[in-house]
Design a protein that fits this description.
By secondary structure, this protein is an alpha+beta fold. The N and C termini lie far apart (34 Å). The mean pLDDT is 87.
Length: 102
């Protein structure tokens, strides 16, 4: 059993073409959704990196996070991953971090 194998591969999956409105009013379509609820550092960062590495240019990835430290760590990673942080939106009990592959 590996260090990050507590969940199966269902944590990252293609979203059912969900459209999200960003705080500035822009509509984006989510290509992939990553469920990192209950996970702590560094798993959300690693899952985000994996998703963006496999994403096509222009794809939007939504990362669902309930860990404040992980939520704050993802936006600064975007420059190194050739991606852009679009928004972090507070949901009921978690944050939705939206990023786009450049």
């Amino acid at each position: 059993m590996g260090l990050f194998s507590k969940k199966n591969d269902s944590t990252a999956h293609a979203a059912p073409a969900a459209t999200v409105t960003l705080p500035d009013g822009t509509l984006v379509t989510v290509a992939q959704q990553i469920n990192c609820l209950g996970d702590s550092c560094p798993r959300p960062q690693l899952m985000t990196k994996k998703a963006l590495t496999g994403a096509s240019s222009g794809d939007v990835v939504e990362v669902m996070i309930d860990n404040p430290t992980s939520m704050e760590a993802i936006p600064p990673m975007m420059k190194d991953l050739a991606s852009t942080h679009l928004a972090t939106v507070r949901a009921d009990r978690y944050w939705r971090v939206l990023v786009r592959k450049n």
